[in-house]
Amino acid sequence: MAQITSPLSGDNQKIAGDALQGALIDLLDLSLVGKQAHWNLIGRNFRSLHLQLDEIVALARTGADAVAERAVALGVNPDGRAATIARDSQVGHLEAGYIEDGKVVAVFTDILCAAVSRMRERIEATEEADPVTQDLLIEVTDGLEKQHWMIQAQR
Amino acid sequence: MAQITSPLSGDNQKIAGDALQGALIDLLDLSLVGKQAHWNLIGRNFRSLHLQLDEIVALARTGADAVAERAVALGVNPDGRAATIARDSQVGHLEAGYIEDGKVVAVFTDILCAAVSRMRERIEATEEADPVTQDLLIEVTDGLEKQHWMIQAQR
Amino acid sequence: MAQITSPLSGDNQKIAGDALQGALIDLLDLSLVGKQAHWNLIGRNFRSLHLQLDEIVALARTGADAVAERAVALGVNPDGRAATIARDSQVGHLEAGYIEDGKVVAVFTDILCAAVSRMRERIEATEEADPVTQDLLIEVTDGLEKQHWMIQAQR
Amino acid sequence: MAQITSPLSGDNQKIAGDALQGALIDLLDLSLVGKQAHWNLIGRNFRSLHLQLDEIVALARTGADAVAERAVALGVNPDGRAATIARDSQVGHLEAGYIEDGKVVAVFTDILCAAVSRMRERIEATEEADPVTQDLLIEVTDGLEKQHWMIQAQR
Amino acid sequence: MAQITSPLSGDNQKIAGDALQGALIDLLDLSLVGKQAHWNLIGRNFRSLHLQLDEIVALARTGADAVAERAVALGVNPDGRAATIARDSQVGHLEAGYIEDGKVVAVFTDILCAAVSRMRERIEATEEADPVTQDLLIEVTDGLEKQHWMIQAQR
Amino acid sequence: MAQITSPLSGDNQKIAGDALQGALIDLLDLSLVGKQAHWNLIGRNFRSLHLQLDEIVALARTGADAVAERAVALGVNPDGRAATIARDSQVGHLEAGYIEDGKVVAVFTDILCAAVSRMRERIEATEEADPVTQDLLIEVTDGLEKQHWMIQAQR
Amino acid sequence: MAQITSPLSGDNQKIAGDALQGALIDLLDLSLVGKQAHWNLIGRNFRSLHLQLDEIVALARTGADAVAERAVALGVNPDGRAATIARDSQVGHLEAGYIEDGKVVAVFTDILCAAVSRMRERIEATEEADPVTQDLLIEVTDGLEKQHWMIQAQR
Amino acid sequence: MAQITSPLSGDNQKIAGDALQGALIDLLDLSLVGKQAHWNLIGRNFRSLHLQLDEIVALARTGADAVAERAVALGVNPDGRAATIARDSQVGHLEAGYIEDGKVVAVFTDILCAAVSRMRERIEATEEADPVTQDLLIEVTDGLEKQHWMIQAQR
Amino acid sequence: MAQITSPLSGDNQKIAGDALQGALIDLLDLSLVGKQAHWNLIGRNFRSLHLQLDEIVALARTGADAVAERAVALGVNPDGRAATIARDSQVGHLEAGYIEDGKVVAVFTDILCAAVSRMRERIEATEEADPVTQDLLIEVTDGLEKQHWMIQAQR
Amino acid sequence: MAQITSPLSGDNQKIAGDALQGALIDLLDLSLVGKQAHWNLIGRNFRSLHLQLDEIVALARTGADAVAERAVALGVNPDGRAATIARDSQVGHLEAGYIEDGKVVAVFTDILCAAVSRMRERIEATEEADPVTQDLLIEVTDGLEKQHWMIQAQR
Amino acid sequence: MAQITSPLSGDNQKIAGDALQGALIDLLDLSLVGKQAHWNLIGRNFRSLHLQLDEIVALARTGADAVAERAVALGVNPDGRAATIARDSQVGHLEAGYIEDGKVVAVFTDILCAAVSRMRERIEATEEADPVTQDLLIEVTDGLEKQHWMIQAQR
Amino acid sequence: MAQITSPLSGDNQKIAGDALQGALIDLLDLSLVGKQAHWNLIGRNFRSLHLQLDEIVALARTGADAVAERAVALGVNPDGRAATIARDSQVGHLEAGYIEDGKVVAVFTDILCAAVSRMRERIEATEEADPVTQDLLIEVTDGLEKQHWMIQAQR
Fold first, then answer.
1. Model confidence at B25, in pLDDT bands (50, 70, 90)?
2. From the CB coordinates, do chains K and I have 3 or more pairs under 8 Å?
3. Which residue in G140, G142, G153 sits closest to G69, CA to CA?
């Protein structure tokens, strides 16, 4: 079957591909837990958080699409299937059922903090390998750090 | 913790809740496999299918949000976490790696055909229990059947 | 030649297909006579009716497209060719040449009244056969009944 | 004086007309008490509730217009005058003067809960009499139940 | 309970508050009778009046919201509940049932003429008390006088 | 009954009127066969052709409205009723049922080629009679020739 | 002082310039009498004519700007000053004061009929001299003839 | 013939009517000389002035429409016919032919300065007679003074 | 150097100029402290206040631009430089560092209350000197009083 | 290889094809020198010319696309490759490096003047051969002559 | 009081925080002097510079918001109060009163040149400390350098 | 003649200038060959490729404008004249005449692959010299690599 040729050498393709696949899983799972909290949220700050969670989901979906399309443009197959997310995701767990507003703030502060930390490792890892990929990861991280601040500010 | 009171009696709430949770898993997984194919697609019909798959994803995401919000409005907690999708989804499997255009047409014809069939069971199941839920399921099914036709027509 | 497989059993497919084909002919002919009157209208209420007839035409065109696409999604071939319309349409006749505003109000009150009556038979016929089709026919009927009122109110 | 002829028989027209007139009074009064609370609201959650109440008012106004126009399309005169609302409305009472945010959440949870309950009776009542009217009532109820959840979630 | 402090002294607050509450009742009732006529209208000029009445309703709703928010900004609680409108409104009565186009023109010419007259008294009353409130009343009056002309011109 | 006076002398009015009526039938039938193919299309190029056929239909509808309104502005009654189209149209026949993509390309290449040819005769015929009508026919022909190229290029 | 050089020879520049200046005066005066009637109109058809007159004014203003800019592009100075319009205009006179709807229809039917007749002479005059100018005059005439029909149809 | 009844007493109606008619002539003539300069302008600052003159024309047209509609709403017939403008206008004269940019700045500084001065007299004259009219004149004056500054700043 | 001539006499120019310069400093400093709080805000109501503060900043910026342009249109030079704001502003002080939501509500209630009070003095001061300037100050005050209410309502 | 069949006979196709290819080269080169000047421009009128040059480029690009698509619709292959432009273009030369505003005005006055002259020959040449092509060339010429005036007016 | 935790270590947080605070002061003061010149500008190029200065102000405001929000996302409190700007800003001084167009070009060329120079130091300083911050500073610098060119080109 | 001063030292200015000029030629020629293929394309995938080529052209034009404006902002004159493109471009050659869809896919895969390779050298070359320029080149490369994938995927 035909394959997409890569503008990168094999090593750099591997490094960039791993960073992008890691980012993809983070962002897809963030979009799923973001929606899960958006639906099951309860508490006095319901409306503000309900809306903000949808902004986080939109950010995660846009970012996921960008990193996956970047991966395939480098000749690397992104994998965003449910089983892969369930198996590989490092995004923090969310209990089933209603979740109170204060809990959402605490959990998403942690989830975004950890995701940012993994993204920063990917920024470092791709600096030599592919500055174009690095630039995309910087942009995604910028958005996540902004949401991290705005969730955390509500504690 | 506070709970959302339901406009339905316990039995009807159970029937409608099951139908909506089932639809949620179908639609979330459809949005994930839709994106997976959107990214890894290859073949002469790449551009047409790449764009159509994004329409299917948009339909699935809008539908998933609607059924999940309907569930919580009935006092039932929707569960759209990755592990739940991976465990419960009946949506057909997609291999990792590149996927050829003809294969996409065949696979999504099957996926949509089966999803439509499960949706029609839910329409029947909710007729007595909750006509408001049934009306939403009818609308979602209408969209899926339209995509089913438009994918299948490309065989 | 390939065919579109139907989500309905043969009997139900037949019932839904007949209802949709009937609706298609009604709506296409309504769009044609609506334009005919839009162009040949004369009288003091020219501008109001000229504009309202275009709303009726837009409603009829949107409805025709929806019922035809629903038919093919059920594996039934819609037939909207001029000869078929000329042969099968039950929409009332319109004389050639100028048509006065009062005449337009009278004629379209009748045309819409009769079309609504046929649509309501189709709603009944499809209730068991296909609730998804029935829901579409209900929506189209709602629009036609609204126009029926707004034309009739001008008598 | 001219009258609008009805697509329904006398009995069904009566049933559908009563359901629509009842819905009209509910929705118009909801739009009035929604604005009353929107203006006189006070408390830490002022901004979120102030905005949400305007969404409820918008929903109620759109719904009121739809049910009233549906009534007249059936040849039934809708009555939405202030005296009629004041006399017939079953929507819960709102005290004059400032109203605190917690109170608004409690009162509107009750108001919406009761309105939904009356709407569901109307859905049942019109099932046989007029499926087109029923479909409109289902759509309105869907919106009210969503707002009921989103207000209640803030307790 | 907390209260909104007023930028006006007690006397001026009383004068401005009374003018705004009076305007609120006029505008809310105008929006209700406007819709009542919009729905029950009949006659050859149906479409033109049906549309113009909706412009009047939109004007009345926007104005009502502005005067009520201005009242509370002055520390005065606006009261726009159905019972208050029914009790206090000086807007002319509208019979139930169909209302012919000529009748609508006559009735609304009178309703708007009288409303303008009361608004002009309020403009005078607030000149000393609060020029900011006066400016809002002038703007509302300007809109009402324009509609008064455009309805009356159809006699 | 009143009639529209023409800016043209009788002979020129006749020439321009015939050209416009001919164009009207061509364009209305093109819009009907365009939709017929849009619905019943099947084959690998389904999506591209499905979308392009809708562009042709939009072009045909806009053109039909323009030529019909031009006719009546010249005091000539356009006739766009189904029976007239069925009787007078020279647009090529389309079989009922599914139609394959390659067939659509071939048939619409022929239909557009022949329509363009008739339009060019009308351009010539109206040059002396009415340059304003000629200019409209030139604009319509330009659009048809562009679609003719873009369909044909897919052979 | 600098001058704009013309793409036309002296004779053709003169012919085209005269045609454009004539059209300019017609269109500017049409925009003035259109507004005059828009403001002073009275009668049952007030709203329809009030709106249509504004469409005529918009058409006349757009056309006036186009012909004036075309004149200067040909090195001919357009003159659209009030005194010039008052002195040169051949547009029919309008009495001061209220003007009834039927009168407006009659007067504007005549005004547009005569304007169209002068425009057609200009189309003929410029055919040889400047086809670019002729094309603009054709477009303006097309718009005027359409309005002529739509006003006249209301008699 | 029917007349528009005025919300003002005879004396006040006369004062407001005169002020509005005066403003109407100023604004209509400003729109004509603005266009005249827009077309015949020449010089290095052509583009800036060409665009700014169109802003002045837009301001003048909007203002003219507002003051004329206000006049008729007061039962006073506005007169904006070419002959009336030519006879009554006090707006400064503009020579025919090309006009250099520096000249435009000088002439429009004077025209706007004088118009503002007349508008301020009208503001004073209407203060007692009709505060609603005065408010409109204030708004128009504000716009003219802004344009006066921005033209003058280019000297 | 050239200067902008004023439509006001020297005394009135001085009064209006002082009022506008005072308003300018109030509004510019409000825009700066509004952003300062928008950025450094912390607490459970973070999101609502973060968004509302941006509405206040937008209001202040729009108002500042309007009063400054009005000043120069009167021939008075507005001064909005940082040093001038720092020296002349009477807007309340904001501490550096994080600022809690409750503190923001308290501080901005005071800041807006005091600004409104100064604006009302300017409205009074300019009544005789320049009604056009007064009208602008009334409009700005209206906006500030609305924000004052909406901030204060959150206490 | 497949070819596009032409609606024109061989001779007319040749004439129209030559005119369109000539126009294509003119327009493409105009778009390139327009951008060259847009970037390298210097002088006091920088901003006005910088913006106007982009309008010229937009006009040239739109025109180039239209004439090239018209050529292929006639079965003639347009050639817009860089080497062809460099070889065939008659558009005046532009020196490398900064170019002063006065120089730009002079050069583009000449470039547009010459282009218009060539376009007018093409209009004449295609009159018999293809009125549809002629109409497109007239429209392009109209735009170029307008820009020619507006550049030249700045001398 | 709660604090925002930083994704950066203390040293890097200090470096990035200093760079962002420096950029904030530059951008806020640029927005203030940009408006000051926008208002007090005089000279033949008034309109072009008046508009361009508003583009610079918009750029500066957007940039200021972005760097301040980035600072707080890093746990550093931005300080944009008037006194801080007055004390710390290195942006060049602007005299009070009218400022001629040539002067504005000279002064803003210098202001932007110096600001760009400081921004480039910040880009260098943050390269190691925080690539996400550096990327934002690069984007802001890109915009400032573009404005620097476009102002300077007008000398 | 005046010159634009550079924020870069001479050496860095030279490096960045060369990279930008190289990118400019690549992008301009890509926009020309993209259009050439857009027009002369033939084959079953005509419509998909016709549309995608226009996306490539839009990307190339936007990129060309950005790199050219960046060059002049650095004091380097971009050269985008036809002769320079024809002389310096390294973009692959395209034969005249019809070009089949498969050929387009092959040729543009090669053209984009080679362009990306040259862009990556420029990214490397400018890293030290000017990070602002580098960031722009990264962004352009990202777009080209995405198009490279999407063309190549159709093989």
1. very high
2. yes
3. G140
